[in-house]
Amino acid sequence: MKTKILFLTFLALFFSNSNAETWSMNYCKNVSAQVNSNLPMNVDSVTDLINTFCLPTKYGPEFNYKYTVDDSIELIPDAQRDTVMRSWCTTPDLMDMLKGLSGVRFSYYQINGNFVGVVSFSYKDCK
């Protein structure tokens, strides 16, 4: 879990806009393509980051992370959402990234393809 948060922090620090401007869809796609060039990546003993992608919303792009988890994991606990959101909402560079997006979404699937859960939030959830 800690490794996952550190990895997300690394991604945000590496690709965030320094002045928290709104991301264009093109910029989001470019960031996603750069991240994807290093994927899939093992995040921890039960989690792999498979890919990232951007989806348009009326409020700007949403940055998506797709993970696979061990088939023994059947749900994403609320504590996971709280931990990830707290990390994003208290780290300045992650906040800058979040300000530039309509939100972020972390989707989890078992290795066998079954949907496990999703964690999503936006800048306004940090207040």
Order of secondary-structure elements: HHEEEHHEE
Q: Based on Cα principal axes, name the global outline.
A: globular
Largest sheet: 5 strands, mixed
Stretches where pLDDT falls below 50 for ≥5 residues?
none
**Terminal residue distance:** 24 Å
Radius of gyration: 14 Å
How do the strands line up in the largest sheet?
A: 1-2-3-4-5
What fraction, in percent, of the residue positions are helical? Answer: 25-40%
Separate helix tally: 4
Task: Count every beta strand, where a strand is a DSSP E run of 2 or more residues.
Answer: 5
Strand portion: 25-35%
Structural classification: alpha+beta
Arithmetic mean of pLDDT: 87
Give structural notes:
This protein is an alpha+beta fold and 127 residues long. It is built from 4 helices and 5 strands. The protein has a 5-stranded mixed β-sheet. A hairpin with a 4-residue loop joins strand 4 and strand 5.
Short description:
With 127 residues, the chain is α+β, with helices and mostly antiparallel strands.
Helix and strand topology:
Layout: H1 2-15, H2 25-36, E1 41-44, E2 47-57, E3 60-69, H3 78-90, H4 92-99, E4 103-110, E5 115-121
Parallel strand pairs: 3-4
Antiparallel strand pairs: 1-2, 2-3, 4-5
Q: What key phrases describe this protein's structure?
A:
4 helices, alpha+beta, globular, single chain, 127 residues
